[in-house]
C-alpha cells in the first residue's frame, strides 16, 4: 500500500451472532443418560449381528452389515438415532447397487427404508417405533 492511502476502520452493518446453538445430534447426546446410551449401543450391536436385511430377505443369506440410519423424516445432513437404523452390506449401502448412490431407484427395487426397518424389528421380535 502506498503511504498516501488513508485507512478507515471497517464498520459491520449486521451484528455477529453471540453464539450458535449446538447441532441437534449434539443436544440429543447431551440429554441421553449413560443407561440409555448403553441400551442404544446394545440395540445397535444386535441389529448389526443380523447381517444385511436386503440379502436376508431376497437371498436368505448372511452378509456382514454396516449401519444405515434412516433418512425418512430427516433434513439434509441430519442422522436418526440407532433405533432407526437398518443393517446393510457394503454393496447395498454404498457400493454397486447402493442406497447412497441411487436412493429412489434402490427403494423401488428393495423396498422403502421404513418397510426394511419393520422387517429388522420383526427379526428382533420387537415393536417397530414407526
Task: Throw out a few tags for this protein.
130 residues, mainly alpha, 2 strands, two-stranded antiparallel ribbon
Radius of gyration based on Cα positions: 23 Å
Report the count of strand segments. 2
SS strand fraction = 5-15%
Distance between the termini: 64 Å
| Tally of DSSP helical segments | 6
Round the mean pLDDT to the nearest integer and report it.
76
Roughly what percent helix?
40-55%
**Low-confidence runs (pLDDT<50, min 5 residues)?**
none
Major β-sheet strand ordering: 1-2
Main beta-sheet annotation = 2 strands, antiparallel
Order of helices and strands: HHHEEHHH
Overall 3D geometry? elongated
The assigned structural class equals mainly alpha
Would you give an account of this structure?
This protein is mainly α and 130 residues long. The protein has a domain at 52-130. Helix content is 42%, strand content 6%. The protein contains 6 helices and 2 strands. A two-stranded antiparallel ribbon has the order 1-2.
What is this structure, in a nutshell?
With 130 residues, the chain is mainly α. Helix content is 42%, strand content 6%.
Amino acid at each position: 500500500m502506498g503511504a498516501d492511502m488513508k485507512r478507515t476502520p471497517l464498520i459491520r452493518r449486521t451484528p455477529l451472532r453471540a453464539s450458535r446453538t449446538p447441532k441437534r445430534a449434539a443436544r440429543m447426546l447431551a440429554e441421553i443418560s449413560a443407561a440409555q446410551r448403553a441400551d442404544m449401543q446394545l440395540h445397535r450391536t444386535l441389529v448389526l449381528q443380523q447381517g444385511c436385511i436386503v440379502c436376508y430377505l431376497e437371498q436368505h443369506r448372511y452378509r456382514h452389515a454396516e449401519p444405515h440410519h434412516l433418512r425418512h423424516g430427516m433434513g439434509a445432513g441430519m442422522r436418526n438415532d440407532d433405533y432407526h437404523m437398518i443393517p446393510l452390506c457394503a454393496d447395498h449401502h454404498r457400493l454397486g447397487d447402493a442406497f447412497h448412490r441411487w436412493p429412489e431407484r434402490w427403494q423401488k427395487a428393495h423396498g422403502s427404508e421404513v418397510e426394511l426397518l419393520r422387517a429388522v424389528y420383526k427379526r428382533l421380535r420387537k415393536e417397530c417405533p414407526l
